[in-house]
Amino acid sequence: MSMNANESRHFYPESYHSELGFKNKLGRAMWGVVWGILFRPSPRTFFGWRRLLLRLFGGKIAESAVVYPSARIYAPWKLEMLERSCLGDFVDCYCVDQVTVGVDCTVSQYSYLCTASHDIESPSRDLTTAPIRLERGSWVFAGSFVGPGVTVGEGAIVGARSLVVKSVAPYDVVGGNPAKFIKKRKAEWVEHGE
Asked: Cα separations (Å) of 7 from 4, 61, 90?
């Protein structure tokens, strides 16, 4: 189910200039430099190095999580990756709000996790945000877009090039633009143990 916008979204006017806003901008600027100099050019197999960099910027990254060097993370302090989770090549993780990638989850190459948008009814186009949660064993196939407030349920599959703006039920397979239910997976997917 998708979240209730009145409960889950945060609204920030364009004139938002609080101390928190300044710290956020400064953190993103520093992260951008680190990403460009130390993260992006790192060898493909240096997963531990990239985990360390993300943790230094407040990311909650499990020891077995995998992030490829071409993955873009907007604000590491808004990212949580659990055991054996993966952000593939050229994934764009626009984590203005919280992004949680659960145990055994994969986000395949060129996918876009987007936690922010704008209020089209507002004259100042206020920023709106809502978290994204990928639950245990879910998989976002290549080139997909997952929008603000979406939860991809346990064991669910998002087909390649899909546009997901509503939450996906556990073990559902969805695909298309907008994503629609295709079929139910068997709940007998293999657990890797913890």
From this structure: 5, 27, 32
Task: Specify the pLDDT at position 106.
Answer: 98
Arithmetic mean of pLDDT over the chain: 90
Cα(137)–Cα(60) distance, rounded to whole angstroms?
18
Say if CB 173 and CB 187 are below 8 A apart.
no
The tens digit of pLDDT for each residue in 68-82 reads 999 999 999 999 999
**Distance between CA atoms of 96 and 77, rounded to whole angstroms?**
10
The domains of the chain are located at 17-183
Q: What tokens does 28 get?
A: 């993103």
Residue 3 has pLDDT above 50, yes or no: no
Question: CA 106 to CA 113: how far, in whole Å?
Answer: 12
Identify the CATH number of the domain defined by range 17-183: 2.160.10.10
CA distances from 85 to 1, 57, 66, 80, 116 (A): 23, 19, 6, 10, 22
